[in-house]
């Protein structure tokens, strides 16, 4: 009986150490351990996309993950596929995310929601709505524009570019830098 109490105390201490106190962030190990599992990444991605909802039903979460894993629409997910995901979420993944303070998981109601500390995963799981531009898309556009202008200037395709290529390259670089600053300050704000 003494061994059981000791094991229980060790588990409580472990859980208390992994849950960050209010206002603190997760350890790097916790972040990377969480992100190392594909199913947890998918669960976090879905929860981040539904951040405005108070809670998400486990059924919806498991159905979405099953659809992602099987490359089908949510309507095409079979009972067996959904149940397999649901069981692993119920038994393993959501309790671990809850223990680490990343989600609030109500096992009895079958609901889950993000905690404020979950914003630490936004950078890693860059999720954008259809109307938002992601940083990767933005920087790709800047890179393509810069390369195109450089190639056109080098080849002399546009005579004006080849005559003033140095001045133009500096002007374009400054314009690209200014647009990146504007994008970061206006478009990159958290809308919540």
Unreliable segments (pLDDT under 50, ≥5 consecutive)?
Answer: 1-17
Q: Rg to the nearest angstrom?
A: 24 Å
% residues in beta strands: 5-15%
Beta strand count: 3
Number of helices: 8
The H-and-E topology, N to C, reads as: HHHEHHEEHHH
Domain DUF7344: 32-113
Region (Disordered): 1-31
InterPro entries: DUF7344 (IPR055768), WH-like_DNA-bd_sf (IPR036388)
Keywords: Membrane, Transmembrane, Transmembrane helix
Explain how this protein is built.
This is DUF7344 domain-containing protein. The chain crosses the membrane at residues 138-161, 167-186. Keywords: Membrane, Transmembrane, Transmembrane helix. The protein has 192 residues and is mainly alpha-helical. The protein has two domains: 25-121, Orthogonal Bundle (Arc Repressor Mutant, subunit A), CATH 1.10.10; 135-187. Helix content is 62%, strand content 5%. It is built from eight helices and three strands. A three-stranded antiparallel sheet has the order 1-3-2. Strand 2 and strand 3 form a beta hairpin. Helix 4 (58-70) packs across helix 5. The protein is elongated, with a radius of gyration of 24 Å.
Descriptive key words:
5% strand; Arc Repressor Mutant, subunit A; DUF7344; transmembrane; three-stranded antiparallel sheet; disordered N terminus; 62% helix; elongated; DUF7344 domain-containing protein; 192 residues; 8 helices; WH-like_DNA-bd_sf; transmembrane helix
Secondary-structure blueprint of this entry?
Elements: H1 2-18, H2 28-35, H3 38-49, E1 56-57, H4 58-70, H5 79-99, E2 103-106, E3 111-114, H6 135-155, H7 159-163, H8 165-187
Helix pairs in contact: 3-4, 4-5, 6-8
């Amino acid at each position: 009986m003494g061994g059981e109490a000791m094991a229980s105390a060790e588990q409580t201490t472990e859980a208390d150490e992994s849950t960050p106190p209010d206002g603190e962030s997760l350890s790097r190990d916790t972040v990377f351990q969480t992100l190392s599992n594909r199913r947890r990444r998918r669960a976090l991605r879905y929860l981040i996309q539904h951040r405005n909802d108070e809670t998400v039903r486990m059924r919806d979460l498991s159905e979405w993950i099953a659809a992602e894993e099987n490359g089908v629409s949510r309507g095409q997910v079979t009972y067996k596929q959904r149940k397999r995901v649901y069981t692993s979420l119920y038994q393993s993944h959501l309790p671990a995310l809850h223990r680490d303070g990343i989600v609030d998981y109500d096992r009895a109601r079958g609901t889950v929601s993000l905690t404020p500390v979950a914003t630490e995963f936004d950078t890693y799981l860059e999720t954008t709505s259809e109307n938002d531009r992601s940083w990767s898309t933005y920087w790709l556009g800047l890179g393509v524009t810069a390369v195109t202008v450089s190639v056109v200037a080098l080849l002399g395709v546009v005579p004006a570019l080849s005559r003033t290529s140095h001045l133009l390259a500096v002007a374009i670089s400054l314009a690209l830098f200014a647009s990146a600053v504007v994008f970061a300050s206006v478009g990159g704000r958290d809308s919540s």
